[in-house]
Specification:
Helices cover 28% and strands 25% of the residues. The chain is of the alpha/beta class. The strands form 3 sheets. Strands 4, 14, 15, 16, 17, 18, 19, 20 and 21 form a 9-stranded mixed sheet that branches. Helix 6 (128-141) packs parallel to helix 7 (179-187). The structure holds ligand LLP.
Length: 419
């Protein structure tokens, strides 16, 4: 459920009519709803009510906006980060460092040092090489890094290839059949306290079965690690729960996910860590855009909007579907190709889509754009960076300024030897 609804024929974010935001802030603009974020945070936490000891660490990559992170910090959430930039955002937003998990397959030497300096709660080590490097750095700094070892369980998550992370040939984690030996080697290093294992098999999962298979494999691994004398106190189960991009889609609910987790992990006696991103932020945001013009096509007309693939990359990158509707529908439909202004054919949000009839100057939204939306924006075609707004009841605030193309150009220099 979200708080983007029509009232008297006009789409509102909570109590704010979207035309007001378009007028005052301009388009394209991402609009987030605080009430929706809080609702999703609550529903996810309640789904896990049968898991006694847990940390929910929001996957910052899905929406790193400081105001969004603050909303989740207020909900008691920690953060799952994959760069020191994300770690610093989470801390700046008020998240306690000990609730921060540092994942990522390519943490640099400098990032490992900085993570230790920030006092983050857990490093998810993705390789033997990284573990040895972290151990050496921590020992030199006189610190002990709290760690888990990320396991690649070789499970097909059944999602888009580009966002699948748990198959044997994906770059993530250590192969499960080598996990015991690598764990033993890393656990004996001074500088690290290797206290558990981690897994994340992919994103936008529409089926709990692959997750359950991965967790069962982890269960067997935990037993065998304990059998080898290791103390296992933490297991990180990652994120990945999908959201409905189409209204009629049915996906497993947080309650169903939580019941499965509670069942599989009943005897584990560990603290569980969760890293949800999309399920919290996805339906808490829309991308508000204005129709530049409608152009005749050979078949369907092209509705050219002022948002483009640089603002919302998912359709171009993954062929992803985003619901597209008018802010003030006329009660008439059209079949159209929805495209942005960027100079490549990939800048297409939808072909032959049945949508509300739209004319030049009309406002429309791409729904379910709160996760992996603004965070993946670029300035391709010398377009600026899209603005972001957070709505709370009948008020809103700009929570990320539009960064003008001119400002980006200000960071560039022409060396005088080119004269
Ligand atoms: N934990 C780890 C280690 C991850 O790699 C990810 C996502 C998450 C948690 C959060 O997953 P979620 O709960 O959001 O599914 N840009 C793509 C999604 C990439 C996901 C990468 N990893 C998209 O737009 O669909």
């Amino acid at each position: 459920m979200d708080h983007f609804e029509y009232r008297e024929g006009v789409m509102h974010a909570e109590d704010v009519p979207l035309p007001r935001i378009a007028e005052e802030v301009g388009t394209p603009v991402y609009v987030y709803s605080r009430a929706t974020l809080e609702r999703h945070a609550t529903v996810f936490r309640e789904g896990l009510s049968d898991v006694p000891d847990k940390l929910i660490a929001f996957a910052v990559k899905s929406n790193p906006n400081l105001a969004v992170l603050r909303v989740l910090a207020n909900q008691g959430y920690g953060a799952d980060c994959v760069s020191i930039g994300e770690v610093r955002r989470a801390i700046a937003a008020g998240m306690a460092p000990d609730k921060i998990v540092f994942s990522g397959v390519g943490k640099t030497h400098a990032e490992l040092i900085a993570g230790l300096e920030e006092g983050i709660g857990q490093f998810n080590i993705e390789s033997e090489e990284e573990g040895l490097e972290l151990a050496e750095i921590a020992a030199k700094m006189g610190k002990t890094a709290q760690c888990t070892l990320r396991i690649n369980p070789d499970v097909d998550a059944g999602t888009h290839d580009k966002i699948s992370t748990g198959k044997a040939d994906n770059k993530f984690g250590v192969p499960i059949d080598q996990a015991g030996q690598i764990f033993g080697k890393l656990a004996s290093q001074p500088g690290v306290n290797l206290r558990g294992v981690a897994v994340h098999i992919g994103s936008q999962l529409g089926d709990l079965a692959p997750l359950e298979r991965a967790f069962e494999k982890l269960s067997a691994l935990v037993t065998s690690l304990r059998g080898a004398g290791h103390e296992i106190t933490h297991v990180d189960l990652g994120g990945g729960l999908g959201v409905p991009y189409k209204r009629e889609e049915h996906l497993p609910s947080p309650a169903e996910y939580g019941a499965m987790v509670a069942r599989v992990t009943r005897d584990w006696r560990v603290k569980l860590i969760f890293e949800p991103g999309r399920v919290i932020a996805g339906n808490a945001g829309v991308l508000l855009t204005r129709v530049v013009r409608v152009k005749r096509g050979i078949n369907d007309p092209f509705v050219i909007v002022d948002a483009a693939m640089n603002d919302l990359a998912r359709p171009a990158l993954y062929g992803a579907y985003h619901d597209f509707v008018a802010v003030e529908p006329r009660g008439v439909d059209m079949t159209a190709n929805i495209v942005g202004p960027i100079c490549e054919t990939g800048d297409t949000f939808a072909m032959g889509r049945l949508t509300d009839k739209l004319e030049t100057g009309d406002l429309a939204v791409f729904r379910t754009a709160g996760a992996y939306g603004a965070t993946m924006a670029s300035s391709y075609n010398s377009r600026g960076f899209v603005a972001e707004v957070l709505v709370d009841g009948d008020k809103y605030a700009v929570v990320a300024d539009r960064i003008a193309a001119a400002t980006i150009m200000d960071a560039e220099q022409v060396p005088d030897w080119l004269d």
